[in-house]
Design brief:
single chain; Rossmann fold; Ubiquitin-like (UB roll); de novo design (two linked rop proteins); 4 domains; 5-stranded mixed beta sheet; 4-stranded parallel beta sheet; binds iron/sulfur cluster
């Protein structure tokens, strides 16, 4: 039998304190669950930022005189890595949580696993009316999740975060899944999946420890290729390169952190291939989210010539004077999008292939 048990209470996502909330609100149940495993040396891992809960935990611990348990605080700049046993073992010895391998000797448990909760709590955010925690059966489907939440606009997909790393769309809504993530992000038809993939990759970039070449280099390469495509520098063959890289990462990384990104990428390329590829081949972002693929315009019918937008444009691409319809000079505009929310009249819009008819020079306002 193992003589070590580690209970991981570090959040996998900042602001999604599923495990920590249980530890705070039901510490007695957690400690009983640990006691029931009858292991010699027990550890509770919490993040540095959360050490204010230690006094309350110590107080509760006084009711468990036979339990040998240590509360260890660890570097909470990382989150995903604490689901890896070799990294958690380092953390309890106050070493950097750098994984050695993917081995699982049944030493490490999440709080929900320890307490045998039948339901999984998960924080749902993104294009939903209300971002909050929901509970679902561990075995569920995308459809059951969708039935419980209210999506803003037309549902496009949802990303079930680490350690699941999968996308669900209308195509696979009915597939059974085992819910293990603490966070789901919902997207609607105003979300570009290429842009979202880049944000997801950036998050994994922050989580990677840099120890294995395929992990660190792989994540860096993925992020660079996605950036190029977003900046209209995508090349034919980039998506095939991403696929090859992801397959190599999946089999060569030392822990799951970077290989889950690789799986997410393969999944996204499968579900959103045309949408992503259109950025390369047609130079089009269907969702009109990627600024480099849209143009910005000021509608003459709405502009009051107040001039409020001028300061928002550091590139001096907006011209006009008081009570004259302002104009964005396309050649000077770097498509940064900063002006978009500066107009209270809603006169500044972005456009894809079909552009609105706008004056090319400031003209007197009709409004
Ligand atoms: S675009 Fe909006 S902010 Fe700019 S001048 Fe016209 S009304 Fe004012
Ligand atoms: S998108 Fe950026 S560069 Fe273009 S007009 Fe607006 S603020 Fe200026």
């Amino acid at each position: 039998m193992n003589n070590i048990l580690i209970c991981n209470a570090l959040p996998t996502y900042e602001n999604c304190n599923i495990s920590l909330d249980i530890l705070k609100n039901d510490s007695n149940k957690v400690l009983k669950a640990i006691e029931s495993k009858s292991v010699e040396n027990n550890y509770i891992l919490i993040g540095e930022k959360d050490k204010n809960i230690i006094p309350k935990l110590q107080e509760e611990l006084s009711n468990f005189s036979n339990l040998n348990i240590k509360i260890v605080t660890s570097n909470d700049n990382f989150h995903f890595v604490y689901t890896n046993e070799s990294a958690a073992l380092k953390a309890i010895n106050n070493e950097n949580p750098i994984p050695r391998n993917k081995e699982n000797n049944n030493i490490l448990f999440s709080i929900e696993e320890l307490c045998n909760y039948e339901e999984k709590r998960v924080f749902i955010t993104g294009k939903v009316i209300e971002s909050k925690s929901y509970s679902f059966n561990r075995k569920t489907t995308g459809k059951e999740i969708l039935d419980k939440i209210k999506v803003k606009g037309k549902f496009k997909s949802m990303y079930l975060g680490f350690p699941m790393g999968i996308f669900i769309t209308e195509k696979n809504l009915e597939n059974e899944i085992t819910l293990t993530t603490d966070k789901i992000e919902v997207f609607n038809d105003t979300d570009c999946m290429l842009a979202k993939l880049k944000i997801i990759a950036e998050n994994y970039e922050k989580e990677t420890c840099g120890r294995c070449v395929f992990g660190f280099e792989g994540v860096t390469q993925i992020s660079m290729i996605l950036s190029d495509i977003l900046n209209k520098k995508g090349k034919i063959g980039d998506l095939e390169k991403l696929k090859k890289l992801s397959l190599q990462m999946k089999s060569h990384t030392l822990c799951d952190v970077d290989s889950i990104l690789a799986s997410s990428l393969l999944n996204a390329l499968d579900l959103f291939y045309d949408e992503i590829n259109n950025h390369i081949t047609k130079k089009v972002c269907e969702a009109m989210e990627c600024n480099k693929f849209v143009t910005f315009h000021i509608l003459a019918s709405k502009c009051t010539g107040c001039g409020e937008c001028i300061d928002s444009c550091k590139d001096e691409a907006i011209i006009g004077k008081n009570k004259f319809v302002h104009v964005i000079v396309e050649d000077d505009c770097t498509q940064c999008g900063k002006c978009l929310n500066s107009c209270e009249e809603g006169a500044i819009v972005k456009a894809g292939a079909t552009k609105p008819k706008c004056p090319t020079k400031p003209i007197p306002c009709k409004k």
